[in-house]
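TASK: fixed-backbone design
INPUT:
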C-alpha cells in the first residue's frame, strides 16, 4: 500500500486511470489506505470556513470534488464497492451533503450529490432485484449491499438529500431523480418515498394534529398522499423543465414510484376536481423526438395506468395503451442505429409490464402485430438448427434482449388459445423455445420455461406438441436439476404444474421418474414460492387420479404435513392444503382415505374455522372440501354434523358469504338434508330461514320464478357437490360446461380450452390468488423485473348467472327435504 499525497493533481491522475478501466478499479480497491484517504477528503472543512482565506478554501473544494469523482467511479466495481461499504462511504457522503451550503459552488454540490447517487445505485444493482432481466449470478457481496441499502432510505437520510430535488441546478436535481429512478427496487423503499415529507412539513402537520380543533380537511390537505406525495408532486413539476436529462430522470423516477403502488398511481392516473391527471401530460412525451424520453415516458405511463386500474369500473386509459404499443412496435421492429439493443430490450420489458395479467391487453398487443416482432427478435440470434448447445461468445446485452422478448411472448400467450396456437403452429416457435431452455444465460432459460408454462395451458398443445417435441421432458429435467438457479427452477415447476393435469400423457412418466421425490425436496427449501408451487403441483397431480395414486402421493407427502398446513403459514399455503384434500375426497374411496388418516375432530375443527376465514380463497376451498366429504356415508355425515359450530358457521357462509362460497355451502345443506339426523341439526342451527331468504333473492337479481324446479338429488354418489367451472377466457370462446367435482378448473371447451396459470385446473380458486403472472411473489424479491399484478380470473356474466341459479336450486331442494323429509320425492 502506498500513501499518495493528496492534491488536485494527484486525484485527477487517479481519476483518469480508473474511469472505464475495471482492472485498475480492482487493483485500487486493494489499497485500503488510499480508499480511506479518498473518503476522508469528502469531509466538510469546518476550520477553513472560519480561519482560512478564500483561496485555500477553493483549493480544498477542488480536492473534495476530485475525491467525489474518484469514489463515484470506483463504486461501479464490485471489489471496490465492498471496500467502500466497509469504510462507511454512504455515511461519509450523507454527512458531506448535510453540510453543503447554498453559497457552495454548483461544481462542489453537484460532485458530492452525484457521488452519493453513484454509490446508492451501485448498491441497488448488487442488492437487487434487477430492473431489466435476471442477473447471471448472485454477487458475493449481495448481503452487504442489501444491508447498505437500508441506510440511505431511512427518514433521517431522506431528509438530507431529497430536498435537493428542487435545487435550481438541473445537474443536482437530475442526480436526486436518478436515485429514485434507478435505486428504488422494493415495495418498502417505494412506500417510504411515497409518504415522505420534508421535516418542516412534518412538524407543521404534527402541530395541527395535536391541537385537534382544526377541521380534518386542513390536516388532509398536507397529508403525504395528497397528489401522490411530496416527491411525486415535485417530480411531476419537473416534467416541464427544458433540460432533457432532468426530464428523463423525472419520468423514470415517477415510473419507479408508481410501480405496483396504487396509492400513488391512482392519484397520478385519474382526474380530480382541481386538475387533470399527470398521465395526460406523460402520454404526449411518448412521441418525443428523443428516444430515451420516449421509453421513460412509456414506462411511466404504463406503471401509472396499470397501477391506477384497480377494478373494471376504472378501465385502463385507451390512449395510453395505443401510444405505448405503437412505440414498442416502432422500437422493436427493424434494428437501426437509433434503436440500440438497450432500447429494444427496454421496449420489450415495457410491453411485458403493460400486458401482463390482462387478457384484453394481451389481445390488443397481438392484434397490433407485437407477437411476430417479438418472435423475430428471438430468432435473429438463434442458431438455425436450434441446437441445445449455444456458443459462449454471445454478448450479455443480446442475451438480455432475447430474455425480454421471451417473457413478453409468454405474457401475451398466457390466456388465449388463438395466440398459443399462433406461436406453435404458425411461427413454429417450439424448437426455438426448446433451444432457449439450454442457454447459458439464466434469464433466457427462465423466460423459455415461462413460455412452456404459458403454452402448456392449451390442451391441444399440451397433449401433442409438448409431448412430441420432447419439450415436456426437457422442462422436467430442468425442474429436477438441483444446481439450477431458483428462478429457473420455479418457472420450470410452474410449467410442470400444468403438465401433470389428469389428461396429460406425461403425468405417469413424471411419476415414474421421481416427480414426488423432487417436490418433497422443494417443500423443504426456504424459498416460499417453490414451496407453494410444489403444493400446487401435488394438488393437480391428485385431480382425477386413481385411488392408488392418491394413497401413494399422500403417503409421500404426509397427512400430518397437510394438516399442519391447514392452520399454519400464509393463507395461500392453507388454500392449497384444503384444495389437496378436496381433490383426494373427489370419490367415495378418497373420502374414506381422508377419514382414515385425519381424525374427524381435527378435520372438522379446521374446516369450521376456515369456512369463515378472512381469506376468501381459504374459505372457498374449505367449503368445497366440506361439500366433497359430506358426500360420504351416513355415519361419516353424522360425525360431521355432531359439531354444532360447523353448521352455525355454514349458516354464516350462506347469509354473508360471496356467491362463489354460497354455491358449495348450499350444496352441503342440500346433501345433508337427506340424512334424518342431519336434518334436525340443520333446523336447530337456524339454517332454514337463511335458505328461504336465498330462495327469495340472488346476487344477480334473478327472480326465483325463473329458476327451474329442483331435481331430486337422490343417494350421495356424486361426491362432488358444489363444484363449478369458470367461463372461457379465449378470444371468442363461450363459457364451458360443468365439471362436477374436482378441485381443478378448466376454461372453455373444444378449441378454446385453457388451463389456468400454475395450477391450471384448480376449480375452486378460479386462478386468481396466484396472480396470473409469469412468476411468484418470492421471485420478485430476487429479480424484480416481473412484478405481479393481480388481474384475477373473474367469471363472465353468464357463468355468474349460472352460479346464482345453482344457489337457488340447491336452497329450494334443501328446503323441500327439510320440510317434507323422507316423504319428498
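OUTPUT:
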Amino acid at each position: 500500500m502506498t500513501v499518495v499525497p493528496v492534491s488536485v493533481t494527484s486525484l485527477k491522475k487517479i481519476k483518469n486511470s480508473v474511469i472505464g478501466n475495471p482492472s485498475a478499479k480492482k487493483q485500487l480497491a486493494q489499497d485500503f489506505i488510499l480508499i480511506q484517504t479518498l473518503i476522508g477528503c469528502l469531509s466538510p472543512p469546518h476550520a477553513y470556513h472560519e480561519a482560512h482565506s478564500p483561496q485555500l478554501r477553493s483549493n480544498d473544494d477542488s480536492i473534495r470534488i476530485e475525491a467525489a469523482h474518484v469514489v463515484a467511479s470506483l463504486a461501479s466495481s464490485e471489489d471496490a464497492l465492498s471496500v467502500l461499504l466497509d469504510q462507511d462511504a454512504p455515511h461519509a457522503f450523507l454527512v458531506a451533503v448535510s453540510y453543503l451550503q447554498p453559497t457552495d459552488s454548483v461544481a462542489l454540490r453537484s460532485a458530492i450529490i452525484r457521488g452519493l447517487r453513484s454509490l446508492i445505485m451501485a448498491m441497488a444493482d448488487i442488492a437487487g432485484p434487477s430492473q431489466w432481466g435476471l442477473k447471471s449470478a448472485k454477487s458475493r457481496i449481495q448481503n452487504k449491499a442489501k444491508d447498505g441499502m437500508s441506510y440511505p432510505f431511512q427518514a433521517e437520510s431522506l431528509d438530507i438529500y431529497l430536498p435537493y430535488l428542487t435545487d435550481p441546478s438541473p445537474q443536482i436535481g437530475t442526480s436526486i431523480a436518478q436515485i429514485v429512478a434507478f435505486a428504488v427496487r422494493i415495495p418498502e423503499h417505494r412506500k417510504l418515498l411515497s409518504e415522505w415529507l420534508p421535516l418542516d412539513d412534518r412538524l407543521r402537520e404534527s402541530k395541527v394534529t395535536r391541537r385537534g380543533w382544526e377541521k380534518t380537511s386542513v390536516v388532509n390537505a398536507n397529508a403525504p398522499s395528497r397528489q401522490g406525495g411530496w416527491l411525486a408532486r415535485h417530480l411531476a413539476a419537473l416534467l416541464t423543465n427544458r433540460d432533457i436529462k432532468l426530464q428523463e430522470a423525472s419520468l423514470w423516477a415517477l415510473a419507479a414510484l408508481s410501480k405496483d403502488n396504487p396509492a400513488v398511481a391512482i392519484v397520478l392516473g385519474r382526474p380530480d376536481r382541481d386538475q387533470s391527471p399527470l398521465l395526460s401530460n406523460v402520454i404526449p412525451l411518448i412521441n418525443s423526438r428523443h428516444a430515451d424520453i420516449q421509453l421513460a415516458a412509456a414506462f411511466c405511463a404504463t406503471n401509472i395506468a396499470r397501477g391506477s386500474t384497480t377494478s373494471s369500473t376504472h378501465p385502463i386509459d385507451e390512449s395510453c395503451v395505443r401510444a405505448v404499443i405503437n412505440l414498442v412496435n416502432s422500437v422493436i421492429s427493424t434494428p437501426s442505429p437509433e434503436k440500440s439493443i438497450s432500447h429494444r430490450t427496454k421496449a420489450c420489458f415495457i410491453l411485458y409490464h403493460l400486458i401482463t395479467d390482462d387478457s384484453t391487453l394481451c389481445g390488443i398487443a397481438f392484434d397490433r402485430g407485437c407477437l411476430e416482432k417479438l418472435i423475430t427478435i428471438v430468432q435473429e440470434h438463434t442458431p438455425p438448427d436450434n441446437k441445445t448447445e449455444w456458443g459462449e461468445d454471445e454478448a450479455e446485452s443480446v442475451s438480455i434482449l432475447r430474455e425480454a422478448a421471451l417473457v413478453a411472448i409468454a405474457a401475451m400467450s398466457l390466456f388465449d388459445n388463438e395466440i398459443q396456437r399462433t406461436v406453435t403452429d404458425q411461427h413454429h416457435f417450439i424448437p426455438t423455445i426448446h433451444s432457449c431452455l439450454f442457454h447459458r444465460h439464466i434469464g433466457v432459460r427462465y423466460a423459455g420455461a415461462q413460455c412452456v408454462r404459458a403454452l402448456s395451458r392449451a390442451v391441444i398443445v399440451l397433449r401433442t406438441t409438448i409431448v412430441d417435441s420432447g419439450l415436456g421432458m426437457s422442462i422436467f429435467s430442468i425442474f429436477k436439476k438441483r444446481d439450477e438457479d431458483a428462478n429457473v427452477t420455479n418457472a420450470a415447476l410452474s410449467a410442470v404444474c400444468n403438465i401433470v393435469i389428469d389428461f396429460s400423457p406425461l403425468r405417469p412418466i413424471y411419476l415414474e421418474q421421481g416427480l414426488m421425490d423432487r417436490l418433497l425436496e422443494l417443500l423443504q427449501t426456504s424459498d416460499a414460492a417453490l414451496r407453494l408451487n410444489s403444493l400446487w403441483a401435488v394438488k393437480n397431480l391428485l385431480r382425477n387420479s386413481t385411488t392408488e395414486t392418491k394413497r401413494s402421493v399422500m403417503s409421500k407427502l404426509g397427512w400430518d404435513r397437510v394438516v399442519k398446513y391447514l392452520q399454519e403459514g400464509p393463507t395461500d399455503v392453507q388454500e392449497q392444503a384444503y384444495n389437496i384434500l378436496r381433490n383426494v375426497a373427489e370419490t367415495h374411496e378418497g373420502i374414506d382415505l381422508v377419514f382414515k388418516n385425519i381424525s374427524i375432530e381435527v378435520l372438522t375443527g379446521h374446516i369450521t374455522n376456515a369456512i369463515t376465514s378472512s381469506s376468501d380463497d381459504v374459505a372457498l376451498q374449505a367449503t368445497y372440501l366440506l361439500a366433497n366429504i359430506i358426500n360420504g356415508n351416513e355415519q361419516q355425515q353424522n360425525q360431521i354434523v355432531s359439531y354444532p359450530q360447523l353448521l352455525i358457521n355454514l349458516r354464516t357462509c350462506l347469509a354473508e358469504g360471496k356467491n362463489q362460497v354460497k354455491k358449495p355451502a348450499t350444496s352441503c345443506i342440500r346433501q345433508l338434508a337427506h340424512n334424518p339426523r342431519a336434518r334436525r341439526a340443520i333446523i336447530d342451527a337456524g339454517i332454514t330461514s337463511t335458505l328461504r331468504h336465498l330462495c327469495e333473492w340472488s346476487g344477480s337479481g334473478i327472480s326465483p320464478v325463473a329458476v327451474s324446479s329442483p331435481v331430486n338429488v337422490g343417494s350421495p354418489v356424486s361426491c362432488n357437490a358444489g363444484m363449478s367451472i369458470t367461463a372461457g377466457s379465449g378470444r371468442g370462446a363461450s363459457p364451458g360446461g360443468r365439471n362436477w367435482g374436482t378441485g381443478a378448473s378448466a376454461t372453455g371447451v373444444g378449441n378454446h380450452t385453457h388451463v389456468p396459470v400454475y395450477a391450471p385446473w384448480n376449480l375452486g380458486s378460479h386462478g386468481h390468488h396466484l396472480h396470473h403472472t409469469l412468476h411468484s411473489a418470492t421471485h420478485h424479491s430476487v429479480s424484480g423485473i416481473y412484478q405481479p399484478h393481480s388481474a384475477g380470473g373473474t367469471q363472465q356474466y353468464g357463468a355468474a348467472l349460472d352460479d346464482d341459479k345453482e344457489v337457488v336450486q340447491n336452497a329450494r331442494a334443501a328446503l323441500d327435504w327439510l320440510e317434507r323429509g323422507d316423504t319428498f320425492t
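COMMENT: The chain has 46 helices and no strands.
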